[in-house]
């Protein structure tokens, strides 16, 4: 059995920060393990649709098999004027700025990805005010391990997010795949030989 990829507790905490209203449309930037965990959680919370944006075609192809409604490299291709909830799971400034512009009037933007602390994102404070957009942050885990364990025990299967498992002898190959941005979650299992 592969251990759960990423940190499901972080995704559970991020979900707890959102005003979950059934039937809303979600846009998630990032089809890595954390973005896909968030996609799985919002789907179980009653989302009407879940779309993801990523630049990695392999991740997008996998996201389509993971139950998202659409997986694209550019949110403009989705044909929606906006989303009730937009989640950034990348920490990439360009994704954050684009995502903030795709929140519908009265919607919510969740900053879930870890951005470089030295960088800033540009957005229109007037648009946030005029459209009553809520901007929420989610910092890792705050007492969310038990709810994450409960979700996993109830059948939320995250094993599919692990694309590669290497023993210690495959460390260099695992690092090379990570740096190349290929795969999803690359797991290093010291006991594997």
Spatial gap, N to C terminus: 15 Å
Give the overall average pLDDT: 84
| Lateral strand order in the biggest sheet | 3-2-1-4-5-6
Strand pairing plus helix content: what structural class? alpha/beta
**CATH topology descriptor of the largest domain:** Rossmann fold
Question: Would you write up a description of this structure?
Answer:
The chain is 33% helix and 21% strand. The chain has 193 residues and is of the alpha/beta class. It has a six-stranded parallel sheet, sandwiched between helices. Strands 7-8 form a two-stranded parallel sheet. The longest helix is centred in the first third of the chain and has 12 residues, at 33-44. The protein is globular. The chain starts with 7 loop residues before the first helix and ends in a 5-residue tail after the last strand. Keywords: Oxidoreductase.
Summarize the helices and strands and which ones pair or pack.
Blueprint (H helix, E strand, L loop, with lengths): L7 H10 L7 E5 L3 H12 L4 E5 L3 H9 L4 E3 L10 E6 L4 H8 L2 E9 L13 H6 L3 E4 L7 H9 L8 E5 L4 H10 L4 E4 L5
Parallel strand pairs: 1-2, 1-4, 2-3, 4-5, 5-6, 7-8
Helix pairs in contact: 1-2, 1-6
Protein name: Zinc-binding dehydrogenase
InterPro entries: ADH-like_C, NAD(P)-bd_dom_sf, Zn_alcohol_dh
Organism: Streptomyces sirii
């Amino acid at each position: 059995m592969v251990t759960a990829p990423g940190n499901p507790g972080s995704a559970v905490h991020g979900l707890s920060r959102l005003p979950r209203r059934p039937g809303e449309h979600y846009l998630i930037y990032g089809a890595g393990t954390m973005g896909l965990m968030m996609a799985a959680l919002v789907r179980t919370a009653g989302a009407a649709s879940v779309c993801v944006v990523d630049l990695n075609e392999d991740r997008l192809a996998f996201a389509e098999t993971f139950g998202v409604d659409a997986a694209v490299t550019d949110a403009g291709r989705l044909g929606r004027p906006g989303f009730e909830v937009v989640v950034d799971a990348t920490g990439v400034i360009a994704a954050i700025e684009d995502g903030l512009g795709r929140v519908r009037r009265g919607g919510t933007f969740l900053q879930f990805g870890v951005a470089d602390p030295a960088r800033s994102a540009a957005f229109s404070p007037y648009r946030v005010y005029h459209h009553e957009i809520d901007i929420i942050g989610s910092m890792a885990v705050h007492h969310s391990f038990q709810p994450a364990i409960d979700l996993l025990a109830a059948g939320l299967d995250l094993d599919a997010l692990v694309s590669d498992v290497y023993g210690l002898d495959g460390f260099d190959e695992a690092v090379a795949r990570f740096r190349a941005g290929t795969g999803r979650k690359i797991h290093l299992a010291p006991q594997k030989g």
